[in-house]
Amino acid sequence: MAVQSYTISELALELGWAMNEMKSRLRQKIQAKINEHDPDLSFELLEIIGLLWRNDGINQQEIGSIVSKDKSSITYLINNLVKRGLVERVANKEDRRNKQIFLTQKGKQKRKIIFPWALELYEQAAGDLSEEEIRNALFLVKKMITNLN
């Protein structure tokens, strides 16, 4: 059996494909869990709520950039979250056109329900990996992201 030799760019491509496949599988499992616990939510809505759990008060442009969605998609998703009473738009004091997005109390409460089972899925994904392996992989991916910026 011949051992195939890969260039750095080919290995980086394989890594990108593997990360994309992992995200796709996690997305499917997370959506299945969402359907069990809160069928009114979607993965996209939960992605924004999860982002706000970590960065409450960021603006729509930042949210769009982080979740890789265009302005109209983000507006639609945030409108949906506002209608459900999960987030609110607050005008920035320096620039009233710039709206910051904050979780409501109801949005913050979702964390108590959703976060434990989301962590279970990521623990399943981590399997028998060590903390050091995960830290090294995280460092590697963040470095590659920095290289693209």
TrEMBL record:
One of its GO terms (molecular function) is DNA-binding transcription factor activity. This is MarR family transcriptional regulator. Gene3D superfamilies: Winged helix-like DNA-binding domain superfamily/Winged helix DNA-binding domain. It comes from the Bacteria. Residues 12-146 form the HTH marR-type domain. Pfam families: MarR. Keywords: DNA-binding, Transcription, Transcription regulation.
